[in-house]
Amino acid sequence: MAGITGSITRWRDRLVALPVLEQDALLYLLATIFALGTVALAGSDDYRQWAEMALGPYLIAAVVSWWVSRRRRRAGTQAARTGLLLRRYLVLGLLVTVVLVPLGVEVVLRAQSKPGAHVQNEVTVIEACADRVAHHKNCYLSNPKTIGTSKTSQSQDSFFPYLPGMIPFGLVSATSGPSELKDARIPLTGFSLLVIAGALLVADTSSRRRWRIFQVAVILPSGALPMVTGGDDLPVLALMLLGLALATRRRPIWSGLAIGLAGTLKFTAWPLLILLALGEWDRRGRRAIWRYSIAAAIVVVPVLGVGVGLAPHAFILNAIRFPLGLTKVKSPAASPLPGQELVTLFPAAKPELITILALVGLGLVGYGLLKWMPKSPQSAAAFCGGAMLLATLLAPATRFGYLIYPLDLLTWAVLLSPVAHQHAGDPAVLEESQEPPSGTSNSRSLRPMTAEVCPSPASVGEMEGLTVVTSTPTSHS
Fold first, then answer.
1. Which of these, 330, 257, 270, lies nearest to 296 by C-alpha position?
2. Is 137 domain-assigned?
3. Which residue has the higher pLDDT, 420 or 92?
4. Residues 168, 171, 173, 177: what is their CA dihedral angle, to the nearest 10 degrees?
5. Nearest residue to 221 via CA among 68, 337, 58
6. Domain range for residue 159?
């Protein structure tokens, strides 16, 4: 065991020591491999079409990043600055080629009713629900019969496993206008990109880390694929990122409002909504649990109250029982993960297995809270990422796509941490200190950079809470 741990540590140190462009090249190479595997193995037409369009751009970005990084090692400061500009151009180029263009193609193909699947179920479900609301009906049906696989009259009988805040994204389908502009993915993507951009502007971290967060959330397959084919998780994640960024800025009320809004979209935002209360501080170094909680409740309670109040039984059936697989119509969410496999192997004992899995999960999370109680926004994100990874593995109805939640949360936990507390070999620290802005001398010490990037001084309790996060064996810049 010690040998395995030592090997992992050595590989971690090697990755941390890589220049930022070489890290980019490695990520784009992995994205290329993922796209190639999707082309070969995907059972859904929209997944395969996205992969065919994204394969070339990822490969080109990987090659260019590696080649420019090797040149930078033999060049001076001007070449280093040029390399960083190129990195940003590559990210923006990939935004167009692996997100916006594939999304436009899929939307047009769907509007023209071309053969094949050009959208995931969640989009048609949101649109069908919004159509019912537009016609003054309740979104949550008391006797739903389908999972909403097409935008036909049959979709009007579909389950709606989301919270009421998701409904506005589908209202575009009930408007008049070209069919291409009535796809719910358009407002889902536009809203997500705007909120992520706002969160990154607010985030108290270095420029290089902001670009890395954007890569993981939008550019890499972890963000690009779901954004193009479905997109319902992206607004949730975007608002979670905004709330976390505001929390690191010591803005508990604004943080609560942002996370509260995320909590009106899907229950997947609730773990962070609850845990972040433990890591909220104000600018005077005081705990801000109540201010944060009240702000979140101001948003969540009225929206949720409308959904529950109109038809409590229908809400529970759609938003709770159906996602848990406790209805006759089965959720399309399915992946060969432990919880799903157990329920499949022993269908007669499904209620008992769900209860056992829930107790195991709650027990492990409870033990974790006793041992590693979050005391900062970053440690709350790290703990929430671990808890959601456990939940995804144990859930009786789950899919691989849900892994984007722990992936993003663990990424934010590291990249939103104060730079001064990161690993000494982190290129975000080294390159920030080596590459001065235009008009300054060629030497910029680490000390002034750290004072500029780090948040305002925290209390002793918060710094102790960052210990778990800052020792995370993950390399980002």
1. 257
2. yes
3. 92
4. -120
5. 58
6. 121-183
Distance CA 393, CA 271 (A): 15
Mean pLDDT of the chain: 81
Asked, for residue 386, whether it belongs to a domain, the answer is: no
Residue 90 contacts residue 216 (beta carbons within 8 Å): no
Q: What is the pLDDT of residue 48?
A: 93
Rounded CA-CA distance 28/65 in Å is 9
Burial class of residue 134, CB neighbours in 10 A (0-12, 13-18, 19+): middle
Q: What average pLDDT does range 65-70 have in this prediction? A: 87
What is d(CA 109, CA 116) in angstroms, rounded to the nearest whole number?
A: 9
Token pair 């407002």 is at which residue? 187
pLDDT of residue 185: 95
Q: For residue 174, what pLDDT is reported?
A: 85
Decide: helix, strand or coil at residue 472: coil
Q: Kindly tell me the burial class for residue 197, based on how many C-beta atoms sit within 10 Å of its own C-beta (0-12, 13-18, 19 or more).
A: middle
DSSP three-state, residue 158: strand
Least confident of 171-180, 226-235, 326-335: 326-335
**Which phi and psi (to 5°) does residue 287 adopt?**
-60, 145
Please report, to the nearest 10 degrees, the dihedral formed by the alpha carbons of residues 21, 25, 28, 34 taken in order: -150
Place of tokens 């432990």: 338
**How many independent structural domains does the chain possess?**
1
pTM: 0.83
In this prediction, residue 80 carries a pLDDT of 60
Q: What average pLDDT does this structure show over 14-30?
A: 86
Q: Phi and psi of 158, rounded to 5°?
A: -90, 155
The answer to whether 118 touches 106, Cβ cutoff 8 Å, is yes
User: Rounded to an integer, what distance in angstroms lies between the CA atom of residue 467 and that of residue 328?
Assistant: 47
249 closest CA partner among 418, 469, 451, 380: 418
The pLDDT of residue 64 is 94
pLDDT of 202 over the 90 cut = yes
State pLDDT tens for residues 397-444: 667 778 899 999 999 999 997 754 444 334 443 344 444 333 333 333
pLDDT of residue 152: 44
Give the number of other Cβ atoms within 10 Å of residue 15's Cβ. 16
Tokens at 47, concatenated: 């997944």
CB–CB of 365/228 below 8 Å?
no
Q: Which helix (H) or strand (E) holds 262?
A: helix 252-263
C-beta of residue 241 within 8 angstroms of C-beta of residue 217: yes
Does 130 fall in a domain?
A: yes
Q: What is the pLDDT of residue 7?
A: 67
- Rounded to whole angstroms, the Cα distance separating 455 from 252 reads 15
Burial label for 354, CB within 10 Å (0-12, 13-18, 19+), is buried
**Is residue 173 in some structural domain?**
yes
